[in-house]
Amino acid sequence: MGPFDYIVVGAGSSGCVLAERLSRNAANKVLVIESGPVDSSPLIDMPRGFGRTLTDSKLTHVYVAKKTGGHNEPEYWVRGKTLGGSSSLNGMVYVRGQPSDYDEWDCDGWRWADLKPHFKALENHELGASDMRGTGGPLNITIHPTKLPVLEAMIAAAAEMDVPTVDDLNSIDGAGFGYQPRNIWKGKRQSAAKVFLRPAMQRPNLTVITDTDVLRLTHEGRRITGVRIRNAEGERDIAAREVILSAGALNSPLLLQRSGIGPADHLKGVGVEVLHDAPGVGRNMREHRLLRAQYRLREGSENAAFQGAGLYLSALHYFLFKSGPLTSAAFEVGGFIRTEPGSGRPDAQLGMGPMSIDTSTPGLSLHGFPGAMCGGYVMRPESQGSILIGGPDSATPAIIDPNYLATDYDRRVSVALFRFIRAMFTQPALAPFVVGEIDPSAGIETDDEIIDAYHRIGGAGYHAAGTCRMGTDDASVVDTRLRVRGVKGLRVVDISVMPSLVSGNTNAPAMAMASRAGELILADAG
């Protein structure tokens, strides 16, 4: 195969959009390499099928991260391994991040004014076009449609806590609460593979190969010449004019390090020959640390719709009408809050819905009684973790240290948002529904107990970013045109280049950033 003009490593949210953008020019010969299989499972299309696909070893990469806060149990991070990547398995909450997040990066070409047109061009929003929304794009965006009484009460409770009710959470640069925007259309998931990659695969200049691992980058001197791959046919090299890593904030830095681009002392220590000493590769990791509170309800819960006879009825409703509980995103309502008066920008994100998880049993099961949950995290965490290779072989587990809640700011806001959740569930609007808080969070009271709960029973937001930081300084991994410093012919295009984490979920930013990156790459090619 080859040579190609561009090799895109990874067919996730960024890789799918980038491949579509680059292959629009028929003169560009583009190859996309995905380590997982084709996205043929019917559970990918079913929105609430993610409860099963996230535990399917054929569709997921599983990483083991180090827990912090004095707890030594392993923590498992899951990422998509199929066409569409994590966009084929995630909770489908479409949140772009607040405009001020991008301006805070202070990177020429990546401010809100630069990215806003790309967000709008991607979208076909059911609320119609506005200054902050797009229509006519390939990605259908809808608002959660089923206004159950308990969901209305949750939104009203937030309003009683002085959080404005909004129709579109992506139309604000401040606090707001309402129904979640989702990339779901006519009851089906809108993954990046379905929306962007599959239509582009009809072009003769785009080649997509699956079930293929990229072992390392090939090079001549400091010029990257292609990739070494391995699949059922064995190992071989494929050449390209330019290689673009869109393997995600975990795999992109690991692939750089295995190829000799990373912190020299560590690479030498694990037996990798250094091509370029880049201490920032794998550093600056930002991740959301989530803690949920759960409540027993008198009525209004959907727990019964996901077990026993209720599940069969939900499945029947889905297959016949593509509607009902199985067509919902991870959370039905949510929003952005300020945890401290006068704090200016919102500092925490909440997601909530009418279900509760029985943590006393293995696996993912719901309570047999009516329940609800609300989870939250610090939107722009200051704590910085890291990801490093454990050895030159891709089969050697990575060393992941999230370094959760390492700063006073992260701890303070984490405590405040958890107390905010508790206060919401005592508001008059929710009083007719709520019986009381239940385990595992019930009984946690002091600030120290709350922080310990984040470490002990909390979880990752699955939004790790920043591990190949973009910037104008020499310590940044990529420049503002996403070219890897110290070598030629190599870029990174995924959320690993974020200087800091945006306010919320990362799927939408990954796609808009890839669209912007494609524009820059084509401009550089002349």
UniProtKB/TrEMBL annotation:
Domain (Glucose-methanol-choline oxidoreductase N-terminal) ranges:
80-103, 248-262
Q: Which domain of life is it from?
A: Bacteria
Q: Which UniProt keywords apply?
A: FAD, Flavoprotein
Could you say which protein family the record assigns here?
Answer: Belongs to the GMC oxidoreductase family.
Keyword Plastid in the entry? The reply is no
Q: Which GO terms describe its molecular function?
A: flavin adenine dinucleotide binding; oxidoreductase activity, acting on CH-OH group of donors
Protein name, per record: Choline dehydrogenase-like flavoprotein
The protein's required cofactor(s) are namely: FAD
- PANTHER family xrefs: CHOLINE DEHYDROGENASE, MITOCHONDRIAL, GLUCOSE-METHANOL-CHOLINE GMC OXIDOREDUCTASE
Give binding positions for FAD. Answer: N90, G91, M92, V93, V214
Would the keyword Flavoprotein turn up in this protein's UniProt record? yes
